[in-house]
Write a structure and sequence with these properties.
CATH topology: Arc Repressor Mutant, subunit A
CATH superfamily: Winged helix-like DNA-binding domain superfamily/Winged helix DNA-binding domain
CATH class: Mainly Alpha
Strand order of the largest sheet: 1-3-2
Shape: globular
Strand content: 5-15%
Length: about 160
């Protein structure tokens, strides 16, 4: 692929992904499953392993006060809790609760069902092309980060 073709593909990816996420978010809002979209990204990250507030803020590119506010809102919903490790009680680790995992699973199922409905009308050839393209993206992005994304290894909603 030439550099110009790579840039064109990059523009396409950057245009399409927000369209997909917008339609999913709109469906989740309509189903009453999306009180705060950013919270589900945080829940997904935290479902992999507990993290410190500073790490979460850095991963999401926000300030500590902004992240602290999000974590407090999620704690009020019962989705996360702050836990202090034995070796250093001054450090708070944020971990997802069973309620948070259930919310994340419910949203993932709703999003998956909506996307399945949107994609169902595709003919066999279009579906194969889509699957091929998604396979290429998965391979490129897992290889470019040695099998680990900025947020950790990717797992399907069923593996969480």
């Amino acid at each position: 692929m030439t550099r110009d073709q790579a840039r064109e593909s990059a523009r396409d990816v950057l245009e399409i992904i927000p369209l997909v996420m917008h339609t999913v978010a709109a469906e989740l809002r309509a189903a009453g499953e999306l009180p705060a979209p950013a919270h589900f990204g945080l829940l997904s990250v935290l479902s992999e392993r507990p993290r410190m507030l500073t790490e979460l803020a850095a991963l999401h590119g926000v300030s500590l006060p902004t992240m602290s506010s999000s974590i407090s809102a999620m704690a009020e919903r019962g989705w996360v809790r702050r836990a202090a490790p034995e070796k250093d009680r001054r450090v708070a680790m944020i971990e997802v609760t069973a309620t948070g995992r259930a919310a994340l699973d419910r949203v993932a199922r709703c999003a998956e069902a909506h996307l399945a409905e949107v994609l169902a009308p595709l003919d066999v050839l279009s579906r194969r092309r889509l699957q091929g393209g998604l396979g290429v993206l998965r391979k490129v992005f897992t290889r470019s980060s040695s099998g680990v994304t900025a947020r950790g290894p990717r797992r399907s909603p069923r593996e969480r």
